[in-house]
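Input chain follows. Return structure tokens only.
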Amino acid sequence: MAPRKRPETRKTPEVVVCPKSKRNRSPREQEPEAKKLCVKGPGSSRRFDSGCLWAGLASLQVPPPCRSVVRALHHHKLGKAAWPSLQQCLQQSFVHSLASYRIFHKAAPFDRRATSLAWHPTHPNTLAVGSKGGDIMLWNFGIKDKPTFIEGIGAGGSITGLKFNPLNTNQFFTSSMEGTTRLQDFQGNTLQVFTSYSTYDFWFCSLDVSAKSRVVVTGDNVGHVILLNMDGRELWNLRMHKKKVTHVALNPCCDWLLATASVDQTVKIWDLRQVKGKSSFLYSLPHRHPVNAAHFSPDGAQLLTTDQKSEIRVYSASQWDCPPSLIPHPHRHFQHLTPIKAAWHPRYHLIVVGRYPDPNFKSCTPYELRTIDVFDGSSGKLMHQLYDPESSGIISLNEFNPMGDTLASVMGYHILIWSREEAGMRK
């Protein structure tokens, strides 16, 4: 089969980027299939929906802020307070600040739903977002210039993984349903193709990159995981799961430690230095349902997994195979919805995840809102819920920027930027 030609980059005039407004949602901005998810029950109304559960959000118990962060820092310096207690004090102050978070920027640049996002590692107001049609947008919402837009191939081009190149942040890696894992720049050039299938029967579903070890790892839809060096040389290609590999993640502190998640209802942990075959995993962590994601915590000491039904798990290092901390949470899988994935906050031991209310979920309440939920990663306690009545769709992806003060969310066609009210006014 002849290689498929990639479209050129363009500064598109059609990209709709605007601050939060009260405009009505255009029918074009939501997929027909997704609109079915927003149908309310008999006799319900938007006014009743919002009013009914705003009281529930207001009643959520949020820990009071630490009385004096400066005092806590001073006590830590004097040796009167341990680091964990100081960290807990800082975390409580951050959780309390979430009450002032609002949507300050919103974009709807794609004609198909957004499927992946990645924050720039050094620019706190810049992120890249990929779509189901293969489009990619680089958006610096801190300036008025139009975003850089790379047009995809349309149907069959879905961006399944997106990572900035840690060795050159003007470049990025992608995995896609087009059947490739590649390195590109924001001028639309393909710099290197790491893996490629010549048929639409096989494609790549996930990727991760290590700057220290200079390796790229990617997983496909039939269970294979491929490890390559930054020069593109394949180190190994093994079938590690029975079905699609939905997520691959390298440990940020020990990048020889790899986690792979699959729809075969397992998450496996591997030592890249000792991989010899499909049975050479260190641990296999069985789940009740297919798994969407497995993320190591920023300190590498814990592993967060999201299944396709109603469970978030937190596993601890050195005891990966011990019973995990379980967090019941509704986020069921739907074919025409970008899979919901929980993520870690980059600085605090907090978990952020979108809620997809399920009438069969044990604690479901009538007219439950589609909130963004923030959990304590240690206790599993729900700490806060973010909600905007003008952006009330199902939010699939949530990622805080490396600074930890700005949240990007993906909701169907929309990209939402959340920030503290006073910070947002300055942007």
